[in-house]
TrEMBL record:
Source organism of this protein record: Marinirhabdus gelatinilytica
Highest taxon, organism lineage: Bacteria
Domain Gfo/Idh/MocA-like oxidoreductase N-terminal: 3-118
Pfam families in alphabetical order: GFO_IDH_MocA, GFO_IDH_MocA_C3
GO molecular function: nucleotide binding
Domain GFO/IDH/MocA-like oxidoreductase: 151-217
InterPro entries xref list: Gfo/Idh/MocA-like_OxRdtase_N, Gfo/Idh/MocA_Oxidoreductases, GFO_IDH_MocA-like_dom, NAD(P)-bd_dom_sf
Coiled coil: none
Protein name per UniProt: Putative dehydrogenase
């Protein structure tokens, strides 16, 4: 078992503490949080050991899980990596692209592994259809949330849209060519609702909308490719897969047949991939343990986290704000 500790014991940090404590692949040694009063309360009520300094926690670990506010990610991660410890870090990887690049270089120099907490990669709906995605050419994603002041320390792009940016980058195997974006600040100092159009060199286009001032929650993405339409509901963990194939010469009475303008007949059919319920956060933590133990590439590498941040920053830089 790998000795693991958590830096940052806020809302998400406590979830990570609980899951690491339950995992059969980690031995939770404890946590460090700058708020000593909150740390004592967590130690008394939940029984996790509180370390008095970040350095003493890092020294006691093989793996350190950074769940601090984004602005502190690089400061904490740098200490972890320089100490030669493996790093799990919540998304976005760092506050700036420059910090992300420095972290990549440090991890390479120190020979440690790192994984970024892009949890939607482990969503069972996305996992159930990812292998069906074959060169999607148009993607549309909507990620809507009710207002929560807890997420407003960063832009809605870094808080919400980056989930879809990372998922899309993982299935579109082409460099980004152009980014167009607009955003509106309603409650916060930074945009609370944003739309981005990402164009890839292979011709694929992704249209993303993210909002943190909606009346209802929605986390959906639709992928269109040759002879297939794939819909992923990240919130409800459901998928819809509609495929087309050349129509048989003698279709049965219930077959759905379409004829295009050129007279080519296609049969529409539905695919129902297996969706296996899981705890996505536990899965991402445990696959990182597997990557360390087996010396394999993490599912969401530091390089991929940096790429998602780079595109997210392009979105922010291209904002036409109202």
């Amino acid at each position: 078992m790998l000795n693991a500790g958590v830096l940052g014991a806020g809302h998400l940090g406590k979830i990570h503490l609980k899951l690491l404590n339950e995992s059969t692949k980690y031995n939770l040694v404890g946590f460090y949080d700058a708020d000593s009063k909150a740390s004592r309360k967590i130690e008394e009520e939940l029984g996790y050991k509180s370390f008095h300094t970040m350095e003493t926690l890092i020294d006691a670990c093989d793996v350190v899980d950074v769940v601090t506010p984004t602005i502190h990610h690089f400061y904490c991660a740098e200490k972890v990596v320089k100490a030669g410890k493996h790093l799990f870090i919540e998304k976005p990887i760092t506050h700036t692209v420059e910090e992300a690049q420095k972290l990549l270089e440090l991890a390479k120099e120190q020979g440690v592994k790192g994984q970024v907490g892009h949890v939607e990669r482990f969503n069972p709906a996305f996992m159930g259809v990812k292998d069906m995605m074959d060169n999607p050419m148009f993607i549309e994603a909507h990620r809507l949330a009710e207002f929560n002041p807890r997420g407003t320390d960063v832009s809605v792009v870094l808080d919400l849209m980056i989930h879809d940016i990372d998922a899309i980058l993982s299935v579109v195997q082409s460099p980004v060519k152009n980014v167009y974006a607009s955003g509106v600040s309603v409650i916060s100092e930074t945009p609370d609702i944003a739309n981005a159009r990402i164009e890839f060199e292979n011709g694929c286009v992704a249209n993303l909308t993210a909002s943190r001032i909606s009346m209802k929650k929605m986390r959906k993405a639709r992928f269109f490719q040759r002879d297939a339409y794939i819909s992923v509901d990240f919130l409800e963990k459901k998928v819809e897969v509609v495929k087309m194939k050349d129509a048989p010469k003698n279709p049965d009475d219930f077959a759905m047949i379409l004829t295009n303008a050129e007279g080519v007949k296609k049969q529409i059919y539905f695919d129902n991939p297996d969706i296996h319920p899981n705890n996505a956060i536990l899965d991402e933590l445990e696959t990182f343990a597997d990557a360390i133990n087996n010396n394999t590439e993490p599912v969401v590498s530091l390089a991929q986290g940096a790429q998602a941040l780079t595109v997210a920053m392009q979105v922010i830089e291209n904002f036409k704000t109202l």
